[in-house]
């Protein structure tokens, strides 16, 4: 298969894996959620003390290993970085805040929708809205600058992190925290989760599927190529759920697992996620895959995600099935405004730099 059909198939693999993992024990409508899984890992490492979301998710380890090994074998492992690392960290930080107000990353949003959760449809509207705002900055010249070649050893940081996390998961030392109840206590068997995570990592690395990229390209260049990956995730996830998880399939807004029905904040939380994702050049799962194949800038972004998760739970920003706390609502509004100001500042600096180059060229020509 070639082109859009191949992209649809890669997306389908991811969607099907999500349905299988939920069947095997992962939390409801959370076969795969990069934001939630990094949040759980942050809790397991003691970065936050929300006892119901502390677990070293083997799917993340599998994604890291899968993306690393396939990129290394195919020559895609390239160690580059240095493109506005502090801005990337801050955007990753706020992206996670938005995701935890919505209760899921963009991938979980699609998988929630594939299991009947219509709150995800509201989130999808917000996500597309945030991406649309981000593309306005892109059209005005927004860029975080070029990355440059980095020491090769830097590219092995995330594979090493994956190994360390796997050791902690297996031996369970006393200083690693594991939930005894709630979503953090729920998970598919470790070996299967690792293997299926690796399948997802390989699929994502080879296809370059990105939820933000799919919608960004439609808005900017009317190209639907990457969108077919998202359609594949939804279609195969839907079929997988109807076959494997029909007893939990629930079409509607109410009584959805690990979700809330505050539509405004589902929408605005994903506006923040979409805005940050398009300005970063990729959604959380894309950043995780890029970090695993040597992209140091994406690695900084993932650290931002982890710290955003810790901050959200330590300071009462994260939503729950009971709703969105006041601190979370404030943080989302502040995040949208702050990230927009940062993007505007980058555009202004880029414009000044272009003007200086234009003046120099004019003087040379004169």
TrEMBL record:
The chain crosses the membrane at residues 7-25, 55-74, 86-111, 117-135, 156-178, 184-204, 225-244, 264-285, 297-318, 330-347. The keyword Ribosomal protein does not apply. Keywords: Membrane, Transmembrane, Transmembrane helix. The keyword Zinc-finger does not apply. NCBIfam families: seleno_YedE. This is Uncharacterized protein. It comes from Tissierella creatinophila DSM 6911.
């Amino acid at each position: 298969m070639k082109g859009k059909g191949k992209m649809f198939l890669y997306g389908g693999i991811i969607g099907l894996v999500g349905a299988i993992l939920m069947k095997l024990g992962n939390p409801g409508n959370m076969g795969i959620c990069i934001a939630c899984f990094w949040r759980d890992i942050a809790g397991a490492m003691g970065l936050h003390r929300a006892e119901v979301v502390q677990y070293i998710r083997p799917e993340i380890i599998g994604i890291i290993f899968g993306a690393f090994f396939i990129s290394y074998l195919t020559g895609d492992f390239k160690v580059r970085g240095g493109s506005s690392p502090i801005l990337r960290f801050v955007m990753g930080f706020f992206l996670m805040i938005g995701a935890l107000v919505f209760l899921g990353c963009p991938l979980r949003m699609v998988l929630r929708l594939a299991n009947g959760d219509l709150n995800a449809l509201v989130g999808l509207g917000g996500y597309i809205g945030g991406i649309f705002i981000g593309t306005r900055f892109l059209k005005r010249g927004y860029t975080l600058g070029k990355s440059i070649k980095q020491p090769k050893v830097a590219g092995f940081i995330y594979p090493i992190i994956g190994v360390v996390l796997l050791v902690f998961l297996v031996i369970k030392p006393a200083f690693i925290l594991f939930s005894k109840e709630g979503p953090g206590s729920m998970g598919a068997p470790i070996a299967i989760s690792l293997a299926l995570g690796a399948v997802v990592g390989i699929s994502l690395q080879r296809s370059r599927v990105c939820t933000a990229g799919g919608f960004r390209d439609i808005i900017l260049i009317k190209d639907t190529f990457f969108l077919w990956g998202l359609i594949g995730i939804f279609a195969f996830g839907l079929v997988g759920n109807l076959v494997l998880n029909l007893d939990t399939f629930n079409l509607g807004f109410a009584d959805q697992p690990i979700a809330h029905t505050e539509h405004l904040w589902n929408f605005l939380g994903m506006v923040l996620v979409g805005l940050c994702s398009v300005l970063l050049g990729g959604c959380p799962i894309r950043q995780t895959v890029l970090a695993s194949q040597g992209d140091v800038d994406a690695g900084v972004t993932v650290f931002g995600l982890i710290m955003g998760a810790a901050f959200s739970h330590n300071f009462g920003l994260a939503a729950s099935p009971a709703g969105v706390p006041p601190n979370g609502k404030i943080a989302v509004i502040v995040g949208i405004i702050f990230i927009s100001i940062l993007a505007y500042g980058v555009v202004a600096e880029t414009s000044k730099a272009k003007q200086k180059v234009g003046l120099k060229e004019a003087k040379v020509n004169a």
